[in-house]
Amino acid sequence: MADLDTLYAHIxxxxxxxxxxxxxxxxxxxxxxxxxxxPKVHEMGLWLQAELERLGxxxxxxxxxxxxxxxxxxxxxxxxxxxxxTDESKKTVLVYGHYDVQPASLSDGWTSDPFTxxxxxxxxxxxxxxxxxxxxxxxxxxxxxxxxxxxxxLPVNLKFCFEGMEENGSEGLDEMIVAEADGYFANVDxxxxxxNYWLGTSKPCITFGLRGVSAFALTVTGxxxxxxSGVYGxxxxxxxxxxxxxxxxxxxxNGEILIPGIMDNVADLTEEEEALYDVxxxxxxELEAAAGAQTLIHxxxxxxxxxxxxxxxxxxxxxxxxxxxxxVKTVIPAKVxxxxxxxxxxxxxxxxxxxxxxxxxxxEFEKLGSKNTMHVEALHGGKCWVGxxxxxxxxAGTRATEKVYGVTPDFTREGGSIPVTLTFxxxxxxxxxxxxxxxxxxxxxxxxxxxxxxxxxxxxKLLATYLHELAAETDx
Amino acid sequence: MADLDTLYAHIxxxxxxxxxxxxxxxxxxxxxxxxxxxPKVHEMGLWLQAELERLGxxxxxxxxxxxxxxxxxxxxxxxxxxxxxTDESKKTVLVYGHYDVQPASLSDGWTSDPFTxxxxxxxxxxxxxxxxxxxxxxxxxxxxxxxxxxxxxLPVNLKFCFEGMEENGSEGLDEMIVAEADGYFANVDxxxxxxNYWLGTSKPCITFGLRGVSAFALTVTGxxxxxxSGVYGxxxxxxxxxxxxxxxxxxxxNGEILIPGIMDNVADLTEEEEALYDVxxxxxxELEAAAGAQTLIHxxxxxxxxxxxxxxxxxxxxxxxxxxxxxVKTVIPAKVxxxxxxxxxxxxxxxxxxxxxxxxxxxEFEKLGSKNTMHVEALHGGKCWVGxxxxxxxxAGTRATEKVYGVTPDFTREGGSIPVTLTFxxxxxxxxxxxxxxxxxxxxxxxxxxxxxxxxxxxxKLLATYLHELAAETDx
Lengths: 476, 476
Ligand SMILES: [Zn+2]
Ligand SMILES: [Zn+2]
Ligand SMILES: [Zn+2]
Ligand SMILES: [Zn+2]
Description:
homodimer
């Protein structure tokens, strides 16, 4: 294996350059959900292409077409593809990241302009996209650059896949991956994504699991149009009353899901899994701080984490078609749609969940004795994902973390989903490793998003080391 | 009493003039809830002032000031006040109406331009404001004009009060009435409002009761900000879950209100009252047609009408702060506000209702065992109103109806509120009669609003006859 210490020293020496480049890209407000900023998303994509070309990668822009947003037809930003190295004796690693960001404005409460990278005394670099996901995306570039500058051979071939619509539904991405599975991505041996976060603020982690999500729309329809509650109140079955009763049969205030059979396929807790929770760098007070409230259901850390990662949860998101403005409007809404979703875990499947939800709601609606009509629609079902910690890809990530940070990483899951993880795994049939750069308190989608400078630099070292460790794996 | 037949014949002869004038005012789109049309509301107020002046009334414009709508500060339209006759030997009748209208546009589904009065073969005059409330307001003017043209002495003094904000909260009206109770309105003996509708389509009615309304906002607060359901789902008490459970404890799908003690003060049904329901011109199929659904709770006419008029009802209007858009957003809303209101009846009071609602919700929230916080706010409480059918004002309205239509009117209530009714009664201490001109199917706030030409003409006769009958009352 190459001299990693030389590599690490080089990275530390070039810290100022890396920060300048991050400043440059944070200044491009590539907000994918803002139609007026769509040109900036394109600009950011081209910036990345140019950098990849400068580093000697062969690049290709995949334009997925157009989509309609806020009534406007917009050109989707390009998926930036790159190939660096085609040495058949080397393994090929596909790295994914996204160059679009969440919206941000000073008026949301930022303490500095969100699109001006602002370095604080405590080492924080504040700016939209710093940690999600421009910092990690740039990290991959500096790994290549550092090897070139030091004359160290990069021990793997790289495939890059950087998209510009991650914060806005990743439109066109899945189709492209599936279409290129045997094409552009044919020789990929392993996948690595750096787009999530440590569990806490001091200990790095390797992420091996994500919950799935099954979303539903529950519609109750009655009158032909909205009615005045003065004129009709008391005379007819009101859709809102039915809907509220139905939504109340889904979940208890303590989080218990009331749908019969919903827990049937939840994987049993093994001793091996249970042991992972004990060592985690996590305190419930951090979760409370991040949520801005002391309203946790469970008192202890282990139960809290397990209900975030390995048990399903059901959230009621809202109601479409009812009055949602300020004040009060004495309306009887004619048609109301309750929106809720279930975070799913192994070994639940979207089909199974949808069936149980429908059966339950139909039975409950029957009990109401209402003359209204009810309809349940499964909106989308993303499967849960669990990676194999014993796979060489994870072993490489683990050893890389140990080398850079000197500790065994936490082995974590996430409560949310990163759909592309499963797409890569299913389409390419390869292991996908989630290898985060930032910390739990980076505030990815919040105000004052930041990336600690130490996480940035150690993150670059981590990505580099991971590639060397992976190259050294004989079982891949 | 003057020769009513001469008066009736004159009114029939001048039908074309009255229709032309209605066409003229329908063409002024005085939509009070549309900022861009506010100048048209002012124009309509000045049109009325000019007509009153032409008829010899002394007029006065009361400008209530400004209000903010859609972020714009707008001048409120004038309340047009008029005095016609100051003969101390005559009684003084105050008539109220409104000259603003609901929004309307062809794209809503109108079969003709809403601001062009369109006469159909079946006698319908279609146009926004035709029945609500420009037709009735003009009716009062033609009563005065007809007397002048015929040289018949108007048997009462009149006070006019026409507002331009009825469809948008009647801002400034109550304050003015209270302030002028012992001033401009000091000598008023009785009040008449023509701004509601027959119960059905063939039999006239006198309206003597209105339900009140008590509106509430039920707030549940948890996290400091909206959270991602993937990250937090299962770990903390979600405000939406609590709120949905609480809203579910308010009312059953069959309309039964579940708040303890809520029915305690509902007036007993007397034989005298019960007899009124038997003769009503009403069929549940009309209500079904108007609601666009066959979802009535009660099968028979009497129960349906009683639950519309004389029993309270509770409607759940919606939720503020939750996701209300299309599709799904996997959010855990941090603070959600359920909006609901109770239509109240004699002898319920807003204070009593508010107390019972709060006590109930506090008890139910306690049962949830949630760490979130709950707050119940009584938004506004309009009292219910019941007039005395034996009062000379009502007797005069009844006899007038019998003379014009040849039938005893239905004695009806309304499920909704007309707040100014109670303001006049309380501020002036005088009887208020609701004497409708139009029919149940006029579609006041809907597309293709219409006034039947026969209702317009008979309505003018009715208002005229009412004034004569009232003048003949010795007990007033
Ligand atoms: Zn991201
Ligand atoms: Zn993100
Ligand atoms: Zn009206
Ligand atoms: Zn109206």
